[in-house]
Write a structure and sequence with these properties.
By secondary structure, the protein is mainly β. It has a single domain (10-204), classed as Jelly Rolls (Sandwich), CATH 2.60.120. Helix content is 9%, strand content 38%. It has three helices and 15 strands. It has a six-stranded antiparallel β-sheet with strand order 3-4-5-13-8-11, with no helix packed on it. A three-stranded antiparallel β-sheet has the order 10-9-12, with no helix packed on it. Strands 1-2 form a two-stranded antiparallel ribbon. Strand 4 and strand 5 form a beta hairpin.
Length: 212
Amino acid sequence: MKLREPGVFQVDVANGQLVGAANRYVKTLADLEGLYEDEAAFAILKDSMGTAVVYKVTDFKPSTEPGDTIVGVTRMRPGRVGREYFFTRGHIHAKANRPEIYYGESGRGVMLLESLDDQIRAVEIGARTLCYVPPFWIHRSVNVGDDDLVMTFAYPADSGQDYAIIEEAGGVRSRVVADGSGWALADNAGYRGRAPERIARAPAGVTNGDQG
């Protein structure tokens, strides 16, 4: 057995990054086209800030072997498209029986979760709050505050991500929206549901790219 060396990484909360992480990627507003309900509001906002980064991820991936762990930091700017708060694309793990942990470093967010049988959960995340995402749940991070939402995350290294299961269904069944006094859940009018055969193959899904 070949041993890997221990690693130590600093979470830079002010800049929302994992210092020393080898991997980094960003999502601009333009990258999220087609995900928000208010297409007219998105088009207007895209004209003014289409290349602006909505969220970025820095992470450390020691391997993709079972038993190993990937750790990283997500930073998401505050903002809304119409009544809908900025969010990540979201995913279920390609190996859907893998969990994930999120730890709130700063800001105020919501973890929006949907089960494969259409159950919805919404978990608030603030500083020093730990959110456990169980296996078999689609999850999406939402910034419902006025400041950057910064979270540290960790998940099994062989998990992978499946984004298509969200895209094929027209999104997640619920949206996180402003209701005048805070945030609330609203039905996603474009939600089409998931075919039984798609649900059946989710646990053995295909790893397809970055975390988001």
